Amino acid sequence: MNGTSFRSDIRYWLRQGNTINHLLFWNIVVFLVMGILYVIGRISPSTGFISVFLYDQLSLHATLPALIIRPWGLLTYMFTHVDIFHVLFNMLNLYWFGNLFRSFLGNHRVLPLYLLGGLSGGLVYLLVYNLAFPGFDSTMIGASASVMALLIACATKIPNYEVGLLFIGAIRIKWVALAIIVLDLLSITKGNTGGIVAHMGGALVGFVYIKLLDNGTDICQPLIWLFNRRLRVEGGKRTKRSFRPKKSPLRVVKPQQEENKQLRLDQLLDKINDKGIESLSPEEKAWLKKMSQE
């Protein structure tokens, strides 16, 4: 019974039309699989090669020969973690700043920027390692570059937006982003050089993306178009899936005016969910503000 309820909760959570939920889900699933295989390998050493093999396949290798053999590593590395604090830190930041990005710029831009940030971080990592340490095959895993892209995009788009931090209180997001970048740069000589330069690659994409978007160029548009083609209903018709909360079984009869208000509210909330609050016109924002005060 509990297992059935848990699966139902997961399905309901994933059907909310929030890409951040899906990214969290797959990152956590990969982490759990890697962890379980590692524990099995410790208990039964004869099976220990399985976790080593899987890590080797999912991570991004620095040398070009290794990359040619495992090109998918440029994509899979950004969904792979093996350290509990690594995945915890990345997932918390993905949840906080990913949902903030989604609320202002729309759900349809989340996955494209996550991927572009990860790809940029991976390419910078490959460039630095092949120039500084030619022939040395290091590996990299983690969603940090992708998360940095979302964080810096938020800090660039809404720099004065305040977030609450434990023990610190309210602080503008631009200072949070600046602090993370400075701490990364200060620790570059203390190890994890590849990871830190990958963070900078993701951060650069987040910054450039918003600057270009403000000028009317959306570099995520090709990926948005590609992913939208996959949103189809049975029979080949295209559709857009959006989350709608479960309705109460109690039906309340409303006057026609109230029905019209509710219909418009639902339409605007769907628009925010899909394209972000910035997609609303000044009239629509004013109407929502009026509704919130009633």
Instruction: Give the DSSP E fraction (strand runs of 2 or more residues).
Output: under 5%
State the helix count.
13
The CATH superfamily label of the largest domain reads Rhomboid-like
Tell me the overall shape: globular
CATH C-level category of the largest domain = Mainly Alpha
Keywords for this entry:
294 residues, two-stranded antiparallel ribbon, 13 helices, globular
Would you give an account of this structure?
The chain has 294 residues and is mainly alpha-helical. The chain has 2 domains: 226 residues, Rhomboid-like (Rhomboid-like fold, Up-down Bundle); 44 residues, no CATH class. Helices cover 66% and strands 4% of the residues. The chain contains 13 helices and 4 strands. It has a two-stranded antiparallel ribbon with strand order 1-2. A two-stranded antiparallel ribbon has the order 3-4. α6 runs parallel beside α8 and α6 packs across α12. About 6% of the residues have low confidence.
In short:
The protein has 294 residues and is mainly alpha-helical. Helices cover 66% and strands 4% of the residues.
Describe how the helices and strands are arranged.
Elements: H1 2-14, H2 19-43, H3 48-58, E1 60-61, H4 64-69, H5 73-76, H6 84-105, H7 110-132, E2 139-140, H8 144-157, E3 162-165, E4 169-172, H9 173-186, H10 193-214, H11 221-228, H12 256-275, H13 282-293
Antiparallel strand pairs: 1-2, 3-4
Helix pairs in contact: 2-3, 2-6, 6-8, 6-12, 7-8, 7-10, 8-9, 8-10
